[in-house]
Design goal:
Blueprint (H helix, E strand, L loop, with lengths): L1 H26 L2 E3 L5 E5 L1 H26 L3 H16 L4 H6 L2 H24 L2 H21 E5 L3
Parallel strand pairs: 2-3
Antiparallel strand pairs: 1-2
GO biological process, one term: electron transport chain
Protein name: Cytochrome c
GO molecular function, one term: heme binding
């Protein structure tokens, strides 16, 4: 009888751990910001890392728009390749664990769109098509920035 109680205690404890991990995966480390968006709470270094990655991708997107507008398909392809490889980036498991599920979905979608942008730029060699794809990617960026902000955790 005592063994059964211990077994049930272990099962309950494991269940709580799994529930907690699942809850963390879905909600992340978030609070509601003063402007109503969901604020993802990161350390100073994590926040700087994420914002640096975003600025880098945004800079490459601007370069791609300029190259595509000039109808320079070879430069468009080169920048699309850079966007694709940069978007794969260095995986930060600690940061990923702190982001809510919907944020993870949006960013995964954006990153897969960078891959499709590169793939299509090579196959189609059509600057207008690349510009349309950048427009679609930017819609996701705007939606994400409209829903989320990243704040530094208070110590």
């Amino acid at each position: 009888m005592k063994n059964i109680k211990i077994l049930w205690a272990i099962i309950v404890a494991l269940g709580l751990i799994v529930f907690g991990a699942g809850y963390q995966l879905i909600t992340g480390s978030t609070v509601v910001s003063s402007d109503g968006r969901t604020a993802i709470v990161l350390t100073k270094n994590e926040r700087n890392f994420v914002l640096g990655e975003m600025r880098g991708l945004l800079g490459h997107m601007q370069q791609l728009v300029a190259a595509a507008a000039d109808r320079d398909i070879d430069k468009t392809i080169a920048i699309a390749k850079r966007l694709n490889s940069d978007s794969q980036g260095e995986k930060q498991v600690g940061i990923i664990a702190k982001t809510p599920l919907n944020f993870k979905k949006i960013t995964a979608n954006i990153h897969s769109q960078f891959g499709k942008l590169y793939e299509d730029s090579v196959k189609k060699r059509d600057a207008n098509h690349s510009l349309k794809q950048v427009s679609m990617i930017m819609q996701n960026c705007i939606a994400c920035h409209g829903a989320y902000t990243i704040i530094e955790e208070q110590k």
